[in-house]
């Protein structure tokens, strides 16, 4: 992925951050590397879903980091230039980001070369890792679906009760209004 650092008119460099985020499962292996093609020095901060800082790197034009997620949720990487002399200058600074998760982190060609494993065994390992990752993802999706279904059912129940209460209040007001008007007209001797 490649993106530009842009000026958002903030007075501090942190105010001009460009953030990239991805929703990740718990205990997911993550590896990312970044570089600026024009060798502009930038700062990077990596945040967990709770907003806590996982890692930061200052004043460099390239770097990489790997970690395993501790919590489930949106993890984000934020980039910003340390000093901005001319805000228009930010438009010319690109950042290349390679963000890999799960099975994509493994370099099977290096494993095959390092252990002299033949290509068939390498393909089988790759398929096995893909299958495990797919299975874990399906289990995670099943849990998320159950959570969302429970939330949907609870919301449906609340809306039903709210509708019933609204109907009772409307009928009650209607009865009260008829009684009030009946008494009013009787007092005025119109009925």
TrEMBL record:
GO terms for cellular component: membrane. Residues 17-101 form the GOLD domain. It is found in: Membrane. InterPro entries: Emp24-like, GOLD_dom. PROSITE patterns: GOLD. The keyword Nucleotide-binding does not apply. It is a single-pass type I membrane protein. The chain crosses the membrane at residues 159-181. Keywords: Membrane, Signal, Transmembrane, Transmembrane helix. It comes from the Eukaryota. Pfam families: EMP24_GP25L (PF01105). Belongs to the EMP24/GP25L family. This is GOLD domain-containing protein.
């Amino acid at each position: 992925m490649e993106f530009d650092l842009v000026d958002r008119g903030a007075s501090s460099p942190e105010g001009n951050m460009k953030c990239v985020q991805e929703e990740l499962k718990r205990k997911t292996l993550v590896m990312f590397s970044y570089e600026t093609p024009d060798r502009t020095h930038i700062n990077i901060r990596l945040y967990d879903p709770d907003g806590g800082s996982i890692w930061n790197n200052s004043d460099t034009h390239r770097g990489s980091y790997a970690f395993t997620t501790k919590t489930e949720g949106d993890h984000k990487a934020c980039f910003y230039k340390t000093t901005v002399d001319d805000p228009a200058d930010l438009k010319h600074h690109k950042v290349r980001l390679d963000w890999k998760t799960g099975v994509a982190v493994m370099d099977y060609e290096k494993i095959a070369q390092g252990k002299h494993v033949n290509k068939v065994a390498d393909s089988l390992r790759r398929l096995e890792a893909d299958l495990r990752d797919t299975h874990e993802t399906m289990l995670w999706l099943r849990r998320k679906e159950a959570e969302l279904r429970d939330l949907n059912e609870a919301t449906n129940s609340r809306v039903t009760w709210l509708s019933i209460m609204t109907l009772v209040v409307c009928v009650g007001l209607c009865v009260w209004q008829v009684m009030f008007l009946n008494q009013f007209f009787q007092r005025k001797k119109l009925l």
